[in-house]
Design goal:
Helix 5 crosses helix 6. The protein has a six-stranded parallel beta sheet with strand order 7-1-8-9-14-17, with helices on both faces. It has a five-stranded antiparallel beta sheet with strand order 18-19-20-21-22, with no helix packed on it. A four-stranded mixed beta sheet has the order 11-10-15-16. The chain has a domain of 338 residues: Alpha/Beta hydrolase fold, catalytic domain (Rossmann fold, 3-Layer(aba) Sandwich), CATH 3.40.50. The protein is 25% helix and 26% strand. This is Lecithin-cholesterol acyltransferase-like 4.
Length: 552
């Protein structure tokens, strides 16, 4: 028995080794790609005077304590840099795996719940399957996300990374894929160093970039803090209050505030239910609303007495007007950016999620009497469409000459793991097997891939306790699309339709059939959708539905 067990273990070890050693095929002809993360998307290490390194972001053991000791900082208006309060250490970004290590899994030591701390991991794995190779055609750029997106030290590092990627790939121009605030960093670089950008960059794909800010999310982050986990797990991570004290001194956060000069279709507001007294001393409750420029006074007053204790010393941490001034200059840099003539820009943004836009404190029943009362409160959001963090209006308003802007139903962090986004990227990167008929612009409108979904039935007992049969469970779902020319009726008996071309005024009819079968229902429904293309890209939609009765 022992011999058989040893042989089984040995066989498993060999099998696991084979799996581990299996490498995807490498395509040396691919253009190099550089991944740029957003805020909080890079590993940050603290290096002491002896050169010893310790990961500070992200970690779970002693996370809040080390975060306060090593990452809390103060802004230096003369240099534009925010400097750690701990003068005996400095913050660095690890460069292992050609920059990919710092943006892959943010806590490599974590085993349980590892998905939560994975950043670009899924995209890196997917791109390796497409034929990319680390250090040859796939690279990363992590950075200290506390700093301004236009800090000269960061710009210098980014220029050096572009040059090194260009050299390592044999002189091929680069495609940059940025996520979230990484888009602002790339745009700042493109504005300040357009000649270098044009020399090394072929394409830039921005995903979920807050080009005009993330108003609701940033307002509450500055006033109430930010939490990356909810519930009891907060006890093992960084508290909202600790995060708030860091963010108040981060130029990058102020650069994510609502752009004050942008012509918003829906203005982001800071609203407060206030209690005031009339000339007779009678209390009166009013709802006051403030646009982005007007809200600065409210935030300044609310944080005027904010202090932290660092190593036994009380440090005042108010709303920082010096950082706001710096951020306003950053907005000017961003607004002057232009895509070089030899480069192409693409914008992917998230949709279909309630996204904080305006925020309200207090209520008619419990009004605010002192602005300092705002800090411990939880604001009530007024939401718009977006990815849950960045509104669609902000993400679409890149102000650049874009080759394409594609909205994808997805959440801010999850969008860089989304299969549809992978398909779009694969198409734009010209990686893997190319589909000549695929167009990312209508991926979610008229050309979905044919698919089938089957779900296992979960038996449920009915109200009478009879049990056994499920009530309403979808067992299969089929969807197919095809291009049908105008003279479809005359050729519909032909076996195949190939080589269909249309002029601008003779757009094809796109017809779909969606069938859903149910168990436990008395009828089967079948829906048909027709999208008729017209001149100028106009579409008309015709929907029909039929129902077939079923026996009990």
């Amino acid at each position: 028995m022992t011999v058989l067990l040893d042989e089984l273990i040995r066989s498993l070890e060999i099998w696991l080794k084979l799996i581990k050693d299996k490498k995807p095929n490498v395509n040396p002809n691919l253009d190099p790609v550089l991944l740029v993360p957003g805020i909080a998307g890079s590993i940050l290490n603290s290096v002491d005077e002896n050169g010893a390194q310790e990961r500070i972001w992200v970690r779970f053991l002693g996370a809040d304590r080390e975060f306060r000791n090593k990452l809390w900082s103060m802004f230096n208006p003369s240099t534009g840099e925010t400097l750690s309060l701990d003068r005996n250490s400095k913050i660095v970004v690890p460069e292992d795996r050609y920059g990919l290590y710092a943006i892959d899994c943010l806590d490599p030591d974590l085993i349980v719940g590892r998905d939560f701390v994975c950043y670009f991991h899924a995209m890196i794995v997917e791109m390796l399957k497409w034929g990319f190779e680390e250090g040859k055609t796939l690279f990363g750029f992590g950075y200290d996300f506390r700093q301004s997106n236009r800090l000269q030290a960061t710009m210098d590092r980014f220029a050096a990374r572009l040059e090194s990627v260009y050299s390592a790939s044999g002189g091929k121009k680069i495609t940059i894929i940025s996520h979230s605030m990484g888009g602002l960093l790339v745009k700042c670089f493109m504005s300040l160093h357009s000649n270098i950008f044009e020399k090394y960059v072929k394409n830039w794909i921005a995903i979920a970039a807050p080009f005009r800010g993330a108003p609701g999310y940033i307002t509450t982050s500055l006033l109430n803090g930010m939490s990356f986990v909810e519930g009891w797990e907060q006890n093992f991570f960084i508290s909202k209050w600790s995060m708030q004290q860091l963010l108040i001194e981060c130029p990058s956060i102020y650069e994510l505030m609502a752009c004050p000069n942008f012509d918003w279709q829906c203005h982001p507001l800071l609203e407060i239910w206030k209690e005031k007294h009339d000339s007779n001393g009678n209390p009166k409750v009013m709802l006051e609303s403030y646009k982005p420029a007007e809200a600065i006074y409210i935030m300044k007053e609310a944080l005027s007495s904010n202090t932290v204790n660092y190593n036994g010393v009380d440090v005042t941490v108010p709303f920082n007007l010096d950082i706001l001034k710096w951020a306003n200059e950053t907005q000017k840099v961003l607004s002057s950016a232009k895509v070089p003539t030899q480069c192409k820009f693409y914008n992917i943004y998230g949709t279909s999620n309630d996204t904080p836009h305006s925020v309200c404190y207090g209520s008619e029943q419990t009004p605010i009497t002192d602005l300092h009362q705002i800090l411990p409160l939880k604001g009530k959001y007024v939401c718009v469409d977006g990815d849950g963090t960045v509104p669609v209006e902000s993400a679409k308003a890149d102000g650049l000459n874009a080759e394409a802007r594609v909205g994808v139903p997805g959440e801010h962090r999850g969008i860089i793991c989304d299969r549809h986004v992978f398909r779009i990227l694969k198409h734009w990167l010209k990686a893997g097997d190319l589909d000549p008929f695929y167009n990312p612009l209508n991926d979610y409108v008229i050309l979905p891939t044919a698919f089938e979904i089957e779900k296992k039935l979960h038996l449920q007992e009915d109200i009478q306790g009879g049990g056994g049969l499920p009530k309403v469970v979808v067992t299969s779902l089929k969807e197919e699309w095809e291009i049908i020319p105008k003279d479809y009726d005359s050729i519909q008996d032909e076996e195949d339709i190939q080589g269909v071309t249309t002029s601008e005024n003779e757009a094809p009819l796109l017809k779909a059939s969606l069938s859903v079968s149910h168990v436990g229902l008395k009828e089967v429904k079948q829906n048909h959708v027709e999208l008729r293309g017209g001149g100028g890209g106009a579409l008309s939609v015709v929907c029909t539905s039929t129902a077939t009765a079923m026996a009990n």
